[in-house]
Amino acid sequence: MRVVIAEDNALLRQGLVLLLTSAGHEVLAEVGSGPEVLPALLEHRPDAAVLDVRMPPGFRDEGLRAALEARARIPGLPVLVLSQYVEESYAAELLGGGASGVGYLLKDRVGRVDEFLDALDRVAAGGTALDPEVVTELLTRRRDSPLDSLTPREREVLKLMAEGHDNTTIAKTLVVTDRSVSKHIGNVFLKLGLPPSDSGHRRVLAVLAYLNNQ
């Protein structure tokens, strides 16, 4: 996989370079400030971009802005955004378009190498990868919505779907059968008033769009 990295912390940036190259990926460019991000992405057109949300010069949302602009200029560009904290507004904005190939992880997740690389692979393949803490925030902040009608098990399934996991992984995590997972997913879509589709990443994106636009 060909990757561009945008991170202002030099130590973390080099750590990401080492992690990705050790996993067999090619780092095409590494930048440390907001204004450098878009030109690097447009020049290299990578298979995926790993971007910090807050970067110089303002340390506000420069990385996120560059990611959104790059996706507008390069439709479908897979972007995995890293953040120090759970910032719902950033997650909502990134996912608001309902596009595929997006991820939002807390930086602590990078230290869990297998989880980070798995998330990057899912995003590069056009899927979605949301940090479990971000998903929890999105779910628990909802009040007086159809989410209230979900059973505890259905909420667990929805949470794992939103993180980007497939049916087999959900079944293993919850120690249930694939058939049970499919049944729970069908109930979730029915209760949320979403199309009863259980194929590919569309179901995850539909749920995320619902959670972020109610």
Automatic annotation (TrEMBL):
<keyword id="KW-0805">Transcription regulation</keyword>
<dbReference type="InterPro" id="IPR000792">
    <property type="entry name" value="Tscrpt_reg_LuxR_C"/>
</dbReference>
<dbReference type="InterPro" id="IPR011006">
    <property type="entry name" value="CheY-like_superfamily"/>
</dbReference>
<dbReference type="GO" id="GO:0003677">
    <property type="term" value="F:DNA binding"/>
</dbReference>
<feature type="domain" description="Response regulatory">
    <location>
        <begin position="2"/>
        <end position="122"/>
    </location>
</feature>
<dbReference type="Pfam" id="PF00072">
    <property type="entry name" value="Response_reg"/>
</dbReference>
<dbReference type="GO" id="GO:0000160">
    <property type="term" value="P:phosphorelay signal transduction system"/>
</dbReference>
<dbReference type="InterPro" id="IPR039420">
    <property type="entry name" value="WalR-like"/>
</dbReference>
<feature type="domain" description="HTH luxR-type">
    <location>
        <begin position="143"/>
        <end position="213"/>
    </location>
</feature>
<dbReference type="GO" id="GO:0006355">
    <property type="term" value="P:regulation of DNA-templated transcription"/>
</dbReference>
<keyword id="KW-0804">Transcription</keyword>
<protein>
    <submittedName>
        <fullName>DNA-binding response regulator</fullName>
    </submittedName>
</protein>
<dbReference type="InterPro" id="IPR016032">
    <property type="entry name" value="Sig_transdc_resp-reg_C-effctor"/>
</dbReference>
<dbReference type="Pfam" id="PF00196">
    <property type="entry name" value="GerE"/>
</dbReference>
<dbReference type="InterPro" id="IPR058245">
    <property type="entry name" value="NreC/VraR/RcsB-like_REC"/>
</dbReference>
<keyword id="KW-0597">Phosphoprotein</keyword>
<feature type="modified residue" description="4-aspartylphosphate">
    <location>
        <position position="52"/>
    </location>
</feature>
<keyword id="KW-0238">DNA-binding</keyword>
<dbReference type="InterPro" id="IPR001789">
    <property type="entry name" value="Sig_transdc_resp-reg_receiver"/>
</dbReference>
